[in-house]
Amino acid sequence: MFTWAENLVSDQKMADLSLQLRLTQKLSLSPQLQQAIRLLQLNRIELREYIQDALDSNPLLERDESDATQDQDSVDLDPKASESVYDHPEEKDNADWEVAGPGEEQWAERSSFESYGMEPQIADTGTDSLQEHLLWQVNLSHFSPVDTGIATAIVYGLDDDGFLPDSIQDIRASLAPELLVGEDEVLAVLHRVQRMEPVGVATRDAAECILVQLSALPADTPARELALRIARDFLDLVARHEYDKLKKNTRADGESLSQALDLIQSLEPRPGARYDNRHDEYLVPDIYVTRSHSEWRVTLNPENEPGLRLNNYYVDLLRKSGGKDAKYLRGRLQEARWLMSSLEMRNRTLLKVSQAIVDSQQDFLEQGDIAMKPLVLKDIADSVGVHESTVSRATTRKYMLTPRGLYELKYFFSSHVKTDRGGTISATSVKAYLQVLLLNEPQQSPLSDQDLSTLLHQTGICAARRTVAKYRESLGIGSSNERRRLYKQKSSRI
């Protein structure tokens, strides 16, 4: 039986209930537009995988094999300019083409990197990876089954430099519940792995790596004990080149200290350097930039065009079939047409954005970094007539091969610094000026950040000391004190 208080609460709740209508606006993207946006931000490898998945799942799509032997010029901004990048269609198999005119340039697609004076970027697959090399040693070692499992977990936990970022507790936890081991067992196996080739692998950092390598040297190695002491207690002084302080703390004579430092510097602080898999990675340009007569021409990599077409067999089958089969085929036909349309839109957008970038940075292509102009996404978006987000997607992880080298499209966008005439200059150009100044600085008295700022002001560039310091650090150049120590060290060795 409800009390009067409960009835009052129930009546209040009923009074709060009401039916309301609201009119709101919400942005909804069509499936085709969503697909076009997604394709635009994919790089070449991801695009290839996406297209292959579409070919595997959609029977109405197939590759246009005839395109493999025909001209595959990129989508051109000028609809009348339909000539191929190849002078002769029959030369497609040889993948060679030339651009005639002043400053004639020779191209060979198989060796396009050599055409610009660059080394051919080919993946080296002839050597084992660091993991494979270590696992091979683990299998040859007389490990027990439990120790083999621990060693395998350690090897798989290494980073590209050969260091072990995981703690002993993390490795022990990763083995459970299959292997229940103690921390002392993991540590014992870790010490054995650290003595494998390359010595010093599976250490925490460069300092520990050097200590392990020194410990593995014969006991009669000259200056070994002093080198061990320096690596254990004074490695920071070596990094800062404070040799006078190092000599004072170690109380070693000059000859012994020099031998110990030479021994330390002969070691490899990154044990996985020679097995570094990152050298296997290579970049293939999405855009080619060439100069024909007085114009810079932009073309897409022919491989960007997948050469898709509709499967005529299934198209004919669609015309003859009905019911569920026809409904299924119609859906796949629409998907196929959307994909081909989205790919064409992607190529056109990528080409227009690239051409706008080249038009804006012609001085860079002719003179180098020192002539780079300030450029932001909005500038290209306004030029092409698209949104800034579209330009951002089109330039992410896309690469342009120019006579000056291979660059990511993002490289051409740079912040600006004001000049004394009220204009602006790009940060890339300022960095180039800094490099020139530092390259010609007097070694006896290196230029400070304030000196560099003053010299830049004399050339009309209004760069504050803090700005100069930021740009200098981004170039990987040390301070004036650090450079002075390096100059002294170099002169003393000479």
Structure report:
It is built from 22 helices and 10 strands. With 494 residues, the chain is α+β, with helices and mostly antiparallel strands. Strand 2 and strand 3 (105-108) form a beta hairpin. Among the domains are: 206-270; 293-412, no CATH class; 416-493, Homeodomain-like (Arc Repressor Mutant, subunit A, Orthogonal Bundle). The strands form 4 sheets. It has a 4-stranded mixed β-sheet with strand order 5-4-7-8.
Features:
494 residues, alpha+beta, Arc Repressor Mutant, subunit A, four-stranded mixed beta sheet, two-stranded antiparallel sheet, 22 helices, 8% strand
What's the gist of this structure?
With 494 residues, this protein is of the alpha+beta class. Helices cover 50% and strands 8% of the residues. Among the domains are: 206-270; 293-412, no CATH class; 416-493, Homeodomain-like (Arc Repressor Mutant, subunit A, Orthogonal Bundle).
Per-chain topology:
Layout: H1 4-16, H2 31-40, H3 44-57, E1 61-63, E2 96-99, E3 105-108, H4 112-115, H5 130-140, H6 145-156, H7 168-175, H8 183-194, H9 206-216, H10 224-233, H11 235-239, H12 243-250, H13 254-265, E4 287-292, E5 295-300, E6 308-310, H14 312-320, H15 323-360, H16 362-367, H17 377-384, H18 388-395, E7 399-402, E8 405-408, E9 416-418, E10 424-426, H19 427-439, H20 449-458, H21 465-474, H22 480-493
Parallel strand pairs: 4-7
Antiparallel strand pairs: 1-6, 2-3, 4-5, 7-8, 9-10
Helix pairs in contact: 2-15, 5-6, 6-7, 6-8, 9-10, 10-13, 14-15, 15-17, 15-18, 17-18, 20-21
